[in-house]
Design a protein that fits this description.
seven-stranded mixed β-sheet, eight-stranded mixed β-sheet, alpha/beta, FAD/NAD(P)-binding domain, about 35% helix, 3 domains, about 450 residues, binds flavin-adenine dinucleotide
Length: about 450
């Protein structure tokens, strides 16, 4: 008789494997991956708290970012030591994927490699899944196939409101060491004279920005990032990356690097669509838009995969797998939605601002306490800190100019999302006035799903 799996997962990246490892403790799981498990074209560093919560994940990490730097072409360089955490750990990419793979196999579930998902059909009591290696059946299908998901395409889920970070870079050895750069350095934002050469150009149509992380005394990960409505092709990114790391004066520390491995990919930004599901089909990781405007997709996965899986096990056991129940698995706290909104506004600004406006914005890092900067991009900023930031922004920018930077077509989207900030404020006020409780923001826990 044909096996009907409890869950079939498409995609052996961090989302599929981590959730598969948890589900396989109690359910019969089949995971299919189009390549071999254990390879990824991405690299990850994450806020320290998401690692410290997961004791089993700690051994799969090393070192991390300890110092942030910025270098705008029209300003002077700036740097600060990490304040929120002593470091932001790096994940050992291969080790963590293999760790989860082995757990799935040890728990008696199955993985089929070099097996490409092609299509699926949802029936009343199960899902039929077509792959290059045959047909399989499961009670639930989980899409963890990343940004090119065929399942999202089939359901015509169009991420038209997103901006895309298109990223291309390389882990490289430096024969003479990393010179005046320090292990733990993270160049957060470097522009070039022609990144956005005049008032009329922006990141949206200009050249990318440059970043790097110094992994150890001889190794760097250097990369370029485009932020646009459309995704950049690999060939354009490859050409631009080579030009930047070989020819630009300001990247001379990278001119003689020996590339070990190229890293690349895309992640959506500027949208809040963590709730994507259909009857008997759920989407997780990049396919489920588990990301933030600043790209902490792996942070989201590490922060939520255990709790998400525990709740899902109960639903699968009771066979409650309709769209609404699956939707509710990953609703987010109002507090977190408002944090993402703030990051979204920054995304819209970064993509559309002119060169001088962009550099002026990055220069605000000198006036705003770096702790608050870190809190903004790890989704931990409090309303009081937000007010401090807004004061600095208003002091330095003409509000009319700022309003013009956000494209007209994005206003409805932003207004809709503004309600989350208002809701957080009202909830906070209500708690303070009627229950004398701690403000909502102090109990916030970054990008948690409300499960
Ligand atoms: C260059 C880069 C750097 C990044 N840096 C960070 C960082 O520092 N910190 C952070 O938190 N996040 C970072 N991110 C984001 C992070 O990488 C993603 O959020 C994360 O990889 C998402 O995991 P996933 O499992 O959902 O998708 P993916 O990692 O994309 O994995 C999807 C898997 O599905 C497989 N697959 C695809 N289609 C099929 C199919 N049809 N059939 C079968 N299998 C299929 C793929 O082969 C792949 O193994 C970065 C992203 C990029 C591109």
């Amino acid at each position: 008789m044909k096996t009907i799996y409890d869950v079939i997962i498409v995609g052996g990246g961090p989302a599929g494997l981590s959730v598969g490892a948890e589900l396989s403790k109690e359910l019969n799981v089949l995971l299919i991956e189009k390549n071999k498990v254990g390879y990824t074209s991405k690299s990850w560093f994450v806020p320290k708290d998401v690692v410290m919560k997961n004791e089993d994940i700690i051994p799969q990490t090393y070192g991390g970012v300890t110092r942030f730097l910025t270098n705008t072409y029209s300003g002077s360089p700036y740097q600060w030591n990490a304040k929120l955490f002593d470091r932001y750990p790096y994940i050992k990419e291969r080790d963590i994927l293999i760790y989860w793979r082995d757990m799935i196999l040890r728990n008696g579930s199955e993985i089929i490699e070099e097996c490409t998902f092609e299509d699926h059909e949802v029936l009343d009591d199960r899902v039929k899944v077509e792959t290059l290696k045959g047909m399989f059946e499961g009670k639930l299908l989980i899409d963890a196939s990343g940004v090119d998901s065929l399942i999202l395409k089939k359901y015509e889920i169009d991420p038209k409101n997103y901006y895309w970070w298109s990223v291309y870079g390389a882990v490289s050895k430096h024969p003479g060491g990393v010179k005046n750069m320090k292990v733990g350095d993270y160049m957060l934002w470097q522009t070039f004279k022609d990144t956005n050469a005049n008032e009329d150009t922006s990141l949206r149509n200009g050249r990318p920005v440059f970043e790097y992380e110094i992994l150890d005394e001889n190794t760097s990960f250097s990369l370029i990032l485009f932020l646009r409505k459309e995704r950049m092709s690999l060939s354009i990114m490859e050409k631009e990356f080579k030009h930047i790391v070989r020819d630009e004066d300001s990247t001379k520390n990278f001119h003689d690097m020996e590339v070990q491995e190229y890293k690349y990919g895309w992640y959506p930004s500027g949208g809040l669509s963590q709730r994507i599901a259909r009857n008997r089909v759920d989407c997780i990781g990049s396919a489920g838009c588990w990301t933030t405007p600043c790209g902490w997709g792996m942070g989201f996965i590490l922060n939520n995969y255990k709790q998400y899986s525990r709740s899902l096990i109960e639903l699968v056991k009771q066979d409650i797998l309709d769209m609404d129940s699956l939707y509710n698995l990953v609703d987010m706290e109002t507090y977190d939605k408002s944090q993402i909104l703030l990051n979204q506004l920054i995304t819209h600004f970064l993509s559309n601002a002119s060169a001088p406006q962009l550099d002026k914005f990055i220069d605000l890092f000198r006036e705003i306490d770096p702790l608050i900067c870190e809190k903004i991009f790890t989704l931990k900023v409090t309303p009081d800190e937000l007010v401090q930031v807004l004061r600095v922004v208003v002091k330095n920018f003409d509000l009319e100019d700022l309003a013009k930077i956000i494209p007209h077509e994005d206003y409805v989207h932003i207004l809709e999302l503004t309600k989350y900030s208002v809701l957080t404020f009202l909830k906070d006020l209500f708690n303070r006035v009627f229950h004398r409780q701690k403000p909502v923001q102090e109990s916030g826990d970054g990008y948690d799903f409300e499960v």
